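Worked example

This section walks through a single chain of length 63. The input is the sequence exactly as stored; nothing has been trimmed or padded.
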Amino acid sequence: MSNEQKDPQSKKTTNQLGLWLSIGVAIGTSLGVAFDNIPIGVALGIMLGTAIGTSLSQKNKKD
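Given that input, the structure is written out below as tokens.
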């Protein structure tokens, strides 16, 4: 028997929104530092992370 047959609960689902939100904030902060405007960079990162995370979450729900 494989591990998948023994323990069906072993699959971990990832929170795509939270993951991409944190990645977006990190990228936005680095862009904000580069362009000397950290709040705008963080805001752009939040928007980007939310958009990507939401779209991937919706895609995973359809599958």
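What to look for: DSSP finds three helices and no strands in the chain.
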